[in-house]
Amino acid sequence: MIRLPGSGPGDPMLADLAVQALCAEARLGPKPGLVDHRGRGAHDDMDLELMLASAEALRPVFRSLARAARRMPVGAGLRAELGRLGRAGERVMLGVTRGVNTHRGALWALGLLVAGAATADDETEAVGRAARLAAIPDGDVPVSHGERVRRRFRVGGARAEAAAGFPHVVEVALPRLRAGRAAGLAEDVARLDALLAVMSLLDDTCVLHRGGLEGLRVVRLGAARVLAEGGAGTDSGRAALLELDGRLRAGRLSPGGSGDLLAAGLFLDLVPWPGSVAGAELGVVSCRR
Fold first, then answer.
1. What is the spatial distance between Cα 113 and Cα 131, in angstroms, rounded to a whole number?
2. Contact of 138 with 83, CB cutoff 8 Å
3. pTM for the whole thing?
């Protein structure tokens, strides 16, 4: 397919890749405290099947977000439209999951990146457009658990992460993922190490909501220890990872914000930017395959 400069990947492709990234993050394991192919992690209200169904339900939402971004310039009007579509998408998600919040944070991050990628020529331009959109206020946003945690603990949260250009994605997750591949690591190991790198640094509001500052300390130090032991691909690193997983499940600590940012990184990594062959052979897949 030939694309004109600035046209970006097509809307259906961006939606498909966003869903593919969500499914890949959900299936990846063993993830400390998170739902994966082994079970519920630190959750008692969701499992892998629910996560995959939720991701599939968001496909038309991502397509609508990309279409809006292609139709309108970056500004308050587009930001308001993305907010409207995103909230409608949340309602679709909650209908499928019967009220369980599986992907609200991921919809925020990936929705902005899908919108940013719609008319971008490369990863940097897509992230920059997403950051500009995130910085525009949206007065209709309800006060969420994440927003209350952000205020209580005085951390940036998801909105600050996006407005800053997703530093934990661009400067942490993606470099770690790509360095792992370059070093010959298996793809799942490279992805796990990328997740752990984010966990070791992020002020994860999902963790703060459940475990406060002590819970955040457990997550960050535990993830850093896994990496210090050589990462998920070594015997000692895997042992430290499973030990951390046990601690997080016992303490009901779920690093969901880190999982959302890994999915965001996987999305950016999958997009075949104009003039690039990266990701070109990664055909559109359903989460149910």
1. 9
2. yes
3. 0.92
